Amino acid sequence: MTADIIIPILIIAVLVSGLVKKRDIVSDFCEGAREGLLTAAELCPMLILLVTVITLFSGSGAAESFSRLIAPIAEKIGFPPECTSLLLMRPISGSGSLAVLDNILAENPPDSFAARTASVIMCAAETTLYTITVFFSSVNVKPKAGFFAASFIADIACFVGAPLFVRVFLGS
Fold this sequence. Notes:
By secondary structure, the chain is mostly helical. The chain is about 80% helix and about 0% strand. It has one domain.
């Protein structure tokens, strides 16, 4: 099947299913849209806070200063110093980490150790704080410290594992 016909088939399947089950499809659609808008409205304050904090962290130079501070330590353990800003941005912001990746790729050849490590991090790490914020805000539950701890342990494993993966499997 080509991608061009999947959406029409899906729409027809939903319409037929609604008719077979004798449901008011328009009312069901409107109710789902209303619930989606309410969920989005409930998420807005937390997302505005998160975007504000990310903007302040990046715009103030704090991210760059911290990145320069940890670069020598990172280099001693075999982590490319060019990627330290990605360590800070990836758990916080997907678009921010894409901008950092773009800078890394602009300043380093694509086959370089730094570019490959940054690419592996982008593929393997999650925007931890963003994901936790959106998920727990949508279900109106306050996250426990264990969620953050487990997420950051996974992020650290990714950050430590990315350069090892690049060295072992990509030969850089």
